Amino acid sequence: MITDQRPGRTFPSFAAREAHSVPNALIRKLERFGTLGAEDRDWLRQISDAAYPVAARTDLVREGDVPEGLFMILEGMACRFKLRPCGARQITAYLIPGDFCDLDVALRPQMDHGISTLSACRVALLDLGTIRRLTENPKAITRAMRMATLVDDATLREWLVNVGSRSAIQRIAHLFCELLMRFRAIGLARGDSYELPVSQLDLADTTGLSTVHVNRTLQELKRQGLIELRSRSLMIRDLPGLQALGEFEAGYLSLGA
Amino acid sequence: MITDQRPGRTFPSFAAREAHSVPNALIRKLERFGTLGAEDRDWLRQISDAAYPVAARTDLVREGDVPEGLFMILEGMACRFKLRPCGARQITAYLIPGDFCDLDVALRPQMDHGISTLSACRVALLDLGTIRRLTENPKAITRAMRMATLVDDATLREWLVNVGSRSAIQRIAHLFCELLMRFRAIGLARGDSYELPVSQLDLADTTGLSTVHVNRTLQELKRQGLIELRSRSLMIRDLPGLQALGEFEAGYLSLGA
DNA sequence: CGAACTTTTGATATCACTCAAGGGACGTGG
DNA sequence: CCACGTCCCTTGAGTGATATCAAAAGTTCG
To answer: Is A186 in contact with A252 (CB distance < 8 Å)?
Structure first.
């Protein structure tokens, strides 16, 4: 077993690095879906500036809540999830910087799922009035946001395929490839590695596996020389190999662009 | 084994019965999300009238296609699906009368999944121009369609929970409950039963199980007195029991309304 | 009445789960 | 600076749910 954990966590440096790149995360993400005007970018920058910090493992919205607006994650990682009566949690999406929850919140009388931070985050909240204006009078930025939502939907379908029909090792391989591409797209990957502030329990609730089996599967991925994972920092050592194993095709993330 | 299959399929009578109720399926569905004007209803009726028949097991769109418009299912059942390199199919959604695929097609450069009929269907196609007009200048009907899309998303999340963390018997129980509610909502259920023109192979590709295990699980559901299933006609004998088993909560289908 | 598909059954294999316990790492308070 | 509690990760052993393989029986349709 290659454990070799460093003494300290990487969170502080993670946060420090993000402090500079993040005003861009949201903009970078949306610009992939079409050119934004200077006005649009200013507006997005204002949103970023108004963001506030939230501790790890904090609920932003709970299932059944009447939504107050649209959350945008500017730093850190969060997730959508559903809870089963027995207490089991299924994570249905990861939210990384630049991601937001659902342009159509204003139409939603109540949440059918919860949203919770996985790591410490910086989060902004767009109020319902702003969203209504955006959706009732669509402009360039609305279009970009709608395309981002299409990607989210496609990602959810990929996750269903993953969990519905792939083996444990394939599920994790696929997930790690997906996250690499998403972190790259917002400038938060260096080469083939990125910070993954997520516990093995979180991975288990994501992939529909038990924690024990996630642990063993991660070891197998390391043993095969496909990844390294220490201190919540993931390095992909053999990206083509990992992609082949997880049947990862990046198309769905960029909508073919 | 309680097989007791009737000599003929029920498709003909199914189609005949639908011929009357279907002009309403789309309208009934959208009216649950807000009052439509007479003009809106007329427009929907025109769409219904322009629908054409499609044979069972026919692809409407394939992954990678550039979408030509928005499909609406007016009779029969269809599905969204993804294919894995090995040929395995994961069904990611069932489309029943009144369902349609994605108001934002116009933004989608290519399909990330396929759509195929499961039974014989009547299908209408809205062209891209119409959709652009609809989305760029939202009106009552656009709002209703957006809400329908929110329900589709919520359903997809439920499916992920189903496949990601429930047992075989729970997955099928949950699915059958969901379909009952959806068929009821468009007037295609009689009491606690409905036509389910779907093979056990289709159910397997939906639930992430093998056909063999689907078969055995269906037998177990019958043995427990929860359902009857003959000639593609499903009768739920103990709805509360089936709901409890599948942890089915109808909320996500109606957005809490 | 034969071909293709679907459902059913039996036997065997395996992937992933559960239970149980030990070992790190980190934070806190004494 | 140490003692303690809490997470999180790791490991072992045993079990169980579901898959796979193979084949027969029923169904549909031309």
So the answer is: no
Name the nucleotide nearest A214; use CA and C1'. Answer: C16
Distance in Å, residue A204 CA to nucleotide C27 C1'? 26
Cβ–Cβ below 8 Å for A207 and B154: no
Q: Which residues of A fall within a CB distance of 8 Å from B247? A: 84-85
Return the closest nucleotide (C1') to the Cα of B201: C6
pLDDT at A167 over 90: yes
Instruction: Evaluate whether A221 touches A227 at the Cβ level (below 8 Å).
Output: yes
d(CA B250, CA B186): 15
Domains and CATH numbers, chain B: 24-157 (2.60.120.10), 166-253 (2.60.120.10)
Specify the nucleotide whose C1' lies closest to residue B6 (CA).
D27
DSSP B118: S
Note whether A157 contacts B80, CB cutoff 8 Å: yes
| Segment A10-60, tens digit of pLDDT | 333 334 444 444 457 899 999 998 888 888 999 999 898 889 999 999 999
For an interface test with A, which of B89, B159, B163, B214 has the most A Cβ atoms less than 10 Å from its Cβ?
A: B163
For the segment B104-149, what is each residue's pLDDT rounded down to a tens digit?
A: 999 999 999 999 999 999 999 999 999 999 998 888 899 999 999 9
CB of A58 nearer than 7 A to strand D: no
- How far apart are alpha carbons A181 and A174 in whole angstroms? 11
Average pLDDT over residues A158-176: 98
- pLDDT at residue B15, rounded to an integer: 41
Q: Please, what is the average pLDDT of chain B?
A: 89
Angle between helices A168-185 and A211-223 (to 10 degrees): 80
List of residues 6+ apart from A186 with CB closer than 8 A? A21, A24, A25, A28, A29, A96, A97, A98
Of B163, B255, B256, the CB nearest to A160: B163
Q: Measure the CA–CA gap between A178 and A169, rounded to whole angstroms.
A: 14
More confident residue, A152 or B36: A152
Over residues A63-80, the pLDDT tens digits come to 999 999 999 999 999 999
Span CA (B125) to C1' (C27), Å: 61
Position A34 scores a pLDDT of 85
Please give the residue of chain B at the shortest CA–CA distance from A105.
B150
What tokens were used for A145? 């946001």
Task: Name every chain A residue with its beta carbon within 8 A of the beta carbon of B149.
Answer: 104
Distance of CA B122 to CAs B100, B129, B145, Å? 12, 22, 19
For residue A251, what is the nearest residue in chain B, using CA coordinates? B112
According to DSSP, the residues that pair with B52 across neighbouring strands are B123
CA distance B119 to B198: 7
Closest-CA distance, B233 to chain A, in angstroms, reads 26
Nearest CA of chain A to the CA of B85: how many Å?
7
